[in-house]
């Protein structure tokens, strides 16, 4: 809301304060939001021009054709390794389809992809060339985990191909190349800041140790043995396990704002610049505020993405809400708490240090009958009390996410059935573990669609053929396997709450993990180098693998 208001006001020739933005209950925001579309200007312009309300209506096909598309990239990669699988060089060339013209996101997807292509690995010699190509399609935007999803697929498939060529287990290749704290600065830290301008802190991260913990947690050796046993019993359905290590950045600045108000009737009103796009910030931010003020979270009125309640903010994108808005709320709530205790202390002729908040009242420590309710505090103040806080940051927070997929592949039909999925994520301190788990599970479900079925297909004249939900395949509930989420707290986030973002980790590694699992199921001769892995793609790869002599199997060394 705040970005769009800053963009719209000068286009309309009015002062920004005269423009009121309020978010709608949009549910999930997975890519088509975070944009200033042409109608965002045309609708208010027409309303002011004619002095009448204007409604914007588009059918599903119109919407599908005009919203941001993404994910279309083509790659050529050369990788150098020694005989033990240690990475020596990574030389990549990417061509990305940006659509017919640039809109709000510009070339950001391309920038993110090449910035984080190196992932959590030590790569002594790294280069990525990027070519941005304009086509007749709708402009490219940022679908959930932009650049990270695509780059992780490329990098992690390359690592599995290295393992196949050397005849060693894919886990061993990663073990020998994942960075440890003493390896700083490693490739991703250098490239991300130089190319994207987004400085990221990797303080406390030990990717190799996290990986070892993950292998033990999921029982990797047992899963490999299980797949081998099943494959020995059947030639029609093959089982495979795939993995992917991805980096996540969150908490990007430059700032976020929050305001906490004690009203005249003693209730708490919270406003923040974060917006609700399915990640549950109303619940999470209310919890942060409630913990400081010692009230029930359900008694806090929360207003998000509404410029009437907060004049300046930033918004929700890039997994920043919990870090930026959470710490802004923490700061505002602490300021309000200090105001409340100061007023109550004056009333009791005591020091603020002798008071505490408990059950919606200021209480003298050790003397529970000397209490002043929040409504009484507001009366002492002669009205409401307001605290506004701006949390600033010049560095994002880096963390690691690990994905493991077990799939069954029907070699006759090419149908891939996900059997089990595990995502392991370092989230720092989870404010609400249930919400974090829900985000990660939802992210995996979305990633499964991108990995196995979602495809934007155009004909030779450039017309979109998959413009409705009859043509564009989405994963249904009965397609999604059991998803296990493991939350790690290896290193708290470098902020007062100690939190890290997790909004995109669930998606970033799915394409790579599924592709590696399918390749593992089909055997060493399988050529899996594109997404989505539709049945036609997998059938072709299966036939090609069957016609080739099998390469040597992994030695089992891990």
Secondary structure elements and pairings:
Layout: H1 2-12, H2 38-50, H3 60-66, E1 73-81, E2 87-99, H4 108-115, E3 126-134, H5 148-166, H6 170-175, H7 187-196, E4 200-201, H8 207-218, H9 220-233, E5 237-250, E6 255-262, E7 268-272, H10 281-293, E8 300-304, H11 321-348, E9 355-358, E10 361-364, E11 367-373, H12 374-381, E12 385-392, E13 396-410, E14 416-426, H13 433-452, E15 483-488, H14 505-508, H15 510-522, H16 535-547
Helix pairs in contact: 1-2, 4-7, 5-15, 10-11, 11-12, 13-15
Give a quick summary of the entry.
This protein is an alpha/beta fold and 558 residues long.
Please describe what this structure looks like.
- With 558 residues, this protein is of the alpha/beta class.
- Helix content is 36%, strand content 22%.
- It has 16 helices and 15 strands.
- The protein has helices at 2-12, 38-50, 60-66, 108-115, 148-166, 170-175, 187-196, 207-218, 220-233, 281-293, 321-348, 374-381, 433-452, 505-508, 510-522, 535-547; strands at 73-81, 87-99, 126-134, 200-201, 237-250, 255-262, 268-272, 300-304, 355-358, 361-364, 367-373, 385-392, 396-410, 416-426, 483-488.
- Strands 4, 5, 13, 14 and 15 form a five-stranded mixed beta sheet that branches. The protein has a four-stranded mixed beta sheet with strand order 8-7-6-12.
- A hairpin with a 5-residue loop joins strand 6 and strand 7.
- Helix 10 runs parallel beside helix 11.
- The longest helix has 28 residues, at 321-348.
- The radius of gyration is 26 Å and the shape is globular.
- It starts with a helix and ends in an 11-residue tail after the last helix.
């Amino acid at each position: 809301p705040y970005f769009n208001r800053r963009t719209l006001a000068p286009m309309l020739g009015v002062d920004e304060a005269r423009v009121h933005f309020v978010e709608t209950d949009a549910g999930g925001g997975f890519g088509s939001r975070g944009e200033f579309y042409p109608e965002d200007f045309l609708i208010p312009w027409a309303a002011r021009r004619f002095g009448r309300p204007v409604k914007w209506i588009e059918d599903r096909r119109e919407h599908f054709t005009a919203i941001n598309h993404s994910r279309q990239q083509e790659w050529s990669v050369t990788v150098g390794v020694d005989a033990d699988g240690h990475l020596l060089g990574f030389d990549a060339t990417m061509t990305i389809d940006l659509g017919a013209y640039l809109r709000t996101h510009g070339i950001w997807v391309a920038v993110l992809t090449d910035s984080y292509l190196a992932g959590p690995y030590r790569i002594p010699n790294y280069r990525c060339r990027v070519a941005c190509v304009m086509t007749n399609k709708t402009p490219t935007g940022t679908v959930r985990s932009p650049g990270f999803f695509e780059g992780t697929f490329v990098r992690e498939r390359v690592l599995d191909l290295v393992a196949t060529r050397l005849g060693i287990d894919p886990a061993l290749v990663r073990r020998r190349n994942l960075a440890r704290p003493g390896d700083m600065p490693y490739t991703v830290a250098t490239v991300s800041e130089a190319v994207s301008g987004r400085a990221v802190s990797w303080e406390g991260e030990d990717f190799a140790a996290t990986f070892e913990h993950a292998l033990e947690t999921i029982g990797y050796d047992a899963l490999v043995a299980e797949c081998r046993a099943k494959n020995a019993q059947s030639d029609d359905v093959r089982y495979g396990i795939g993995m992917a290590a991805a980096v996540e950045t969150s908490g990007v600045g430059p700032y976020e704002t929050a305001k906490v108000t004690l009203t005249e009737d003693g209730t708490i009103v919270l406003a923040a610049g974060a917006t609700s796009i399915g990640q549950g910030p109303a619940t999470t931010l209310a919890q942060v505020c409630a913990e400081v003020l010692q009230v029930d979270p359900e008694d806090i009125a929360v207003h998000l993405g509404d410029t009437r309640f907060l004049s300046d903010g930033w918004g929700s994108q890039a997994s920043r809400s919990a870090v930026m808005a959470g710490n802004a709320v923490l700061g505002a709530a602490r300021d309000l708490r200090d105001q409340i205790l100061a007023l109550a202390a004056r009333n009791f002729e005591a020091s603020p240090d002798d008071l505490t908040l408990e059950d919606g009242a200021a209480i003298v420590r050790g003397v529970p009958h000397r209490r002043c309710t929040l409504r009484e505090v507001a009366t002492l103040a002669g009205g409401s009390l307001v605290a506004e806080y701006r949390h600033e940051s010049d560095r994002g927070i880096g963390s690691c996410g690990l994905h493991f997929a077990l799939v069954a592949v029907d070699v006759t039909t090419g149908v891939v059935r996900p059997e089990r999925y595990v995502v392991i994520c370092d989230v720092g301190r989870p404010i609400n573990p249930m919400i974090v788990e829900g985000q990660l599970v939802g992210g995996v479900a979305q990633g499964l669609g991108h990995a196995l079925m979602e495809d934007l297909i155009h004909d030779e004249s450039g017309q979109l053929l998959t413009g409705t939900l009859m043509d564009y395949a989405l994963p249904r509930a009965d397609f999604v396997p059991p998803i296990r989420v493991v939350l790690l707290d290896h290193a708290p986030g470098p902020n007062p709450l100690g939190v890290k973002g997790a909004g995109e980790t669930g998606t970033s590694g799915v394409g790579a993990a599924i592709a590696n699992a399918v390749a593992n199921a089909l055997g060493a001769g399988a050529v899996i180098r594109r997404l989505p892995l539709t049945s036609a793609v997998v059938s072709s790869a299966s036939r090609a693998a069957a016609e080739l002599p099998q390469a040597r199997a992994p030695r089992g060394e891990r």
